[in-house]
Amino acid sequence: MASLKFELHKEDNQSKARAGKITTDHGEILTPIFMPVGTVGSVKAVNQQQLKNDIKAQIILGNTYHLYLRPGTDVLEAAGGLHKFNGWDRPILTDSGGYQVFSLAGTRKIKEEGVTFQSHIDGSRHLFSPEKVMDIERSIGADIIMAFDECTPFGSDYNYTRKSMEMTHRWLDRCIKRLDETDNMYGYTQNLFPIVQGSVFPDLRKASCEYIASKNAVGNAIGGLSVGEPEDKLYEFTGLCCEYLPQDKPRYLMGVGTPWNILEGIALGVDMFDCVMPTRNGRNGMLFTTEGVINIKNKKWEKDFTPIDSGFECETSNYYTKAYLRHLVHSQEILALELASIHNLAFYLWLVGQAREHIIAGDFTSWKNEMVVKLKTRL
């Protein structure tokens, strides 16, 4: 089977934004794209039919750390991989678990060999090495798999960040070697994306981009951002990475972010995004809409019988009212979680779809500037 292919369709004249297409063995992905997060093989509160029909997702994420612990690689292999296990027949990307290990600061130990950590489920101890992670990602069977890295937190000093970045580069070489020694057990191509690190140090980011670019991977990821740094630093270092990463390969900004973060990231040259924000915030009553941000818990929506959002095409958003969703939230009905999650995800997919259309039309920058103001409005 063929490796991942990336085609550039249009580049914006006033920014670095571009529209393209990624082709994998499980289908095509039109970029720029937002990827709903399905950490344990499931996007929270949303089923696969809703992902396809209402949300119009083209690719979803799974997570190596969580899927390794539960259900385990033996179950995934017996099922024929994650696509067969969860019934999603479109592309899947798996995060390597590096960020989750980073989050387990109290129980992890990082060495050259890899990272030992305690399971958040039962406290059992495990080792993640680059080789182990590649084997797990082979078992999961995603179309795009991430290299194992250390995600340094914002505020790390220069020397620690440099040593961590250099170790991440050595781990990348071991990931590549392991993949070269093994084959996908399900009969299709898996594509490795290396991850740029270097925190908020320009020389380290540049060095990491150059090292990653030298590996000539089919795509590249920008990691270590959206970990507590100010928004201006997020944009500064995203832009720096896009300058040094190859123009003819898709760029994936990991874990970002708000709708306006995504539009600014697109303007800087990013093609792929993921974040738990639309589902997590939705479950807590925050809705992103075409007119701005809504806290659906507020009393002002109690007798508002207008649709959740009629500004874009989504059956859920157009059919249910703000008053009804507010009622469900205050009644702690499970349906509230479902409707809010579907709405927010559909909005994110609509937003990147609109960005693509405006890039192709040639008016992306003016549209983006107007849209960012509207998106930040608190209703």
From TrEMBL:
It catalyses: 7-aminomethyl-7-carbaguanine + guanosine(34) in tRNA = 7-aminomethyl-7-carbaguanosine(34) in tRNA + guanine. GO terms for biological process: tRNA queuosine(34) biosynthetic process. The active site is at D95 (proton acceptor), D274 (nucleophile). Keywords: Glycosyltransferase, Queuosine biosynthesis, Transferase, tRNA processing. Residues 255-261, 279-283 are annotated as: RNA binding. Catalyzes the base-exchange of a guanine (G) residue with the queuine precursor 7-aminomethyl-7-deazaguanine (PreQ1) at position 34 (anticodon wobble position) in tRNAs with GU(N) anticodons (tRNA-Asp, -Asn, -His and -Tyr). Catalysis occurs through a double-displacement mechanism. The nucleophile active site attacks the C1' of nucleotide 34 to detach the guanine base from the RNA, forming a covalent enzyme-RNA intermediate. The proton acceptor active site deprotonates the incoming PreQ1, allowing a nucleophilic attack on the C1' of the ribose to form the product. Transmembrane segments: none annotated. It is an enzyme of class 2 (transferase). Pathway: tRNA modification; tRNA-queuosine biosynthesis. GO terms for molecular function: tRNA-guanosine(34) queuine transglycosylase activity. Substrate binds at D95, S96, G97, G98, Y99, D149, Q197, G224. Belongs to the queuine tRNA-ribosyltransferase family. Gene3D superfamilies: Queuine tRNA-ribosyltransferase-like (3.20.20.105). One of its GO terms (cellular component) is cytosol. This is Queuine tRNA-ribosyltransferase. Its EC number is 2.4.2.29. Homodimer. Within each dimer, one monomer is responsible for RNA recognition and catalysis, while the other monomer binds to the replacement base PreQ1. NCBIfam families: Q_tRNA_tgt, tgt_general. Residues 15-374 form the tRNA-guanine(15) transglycosylase-like domain.
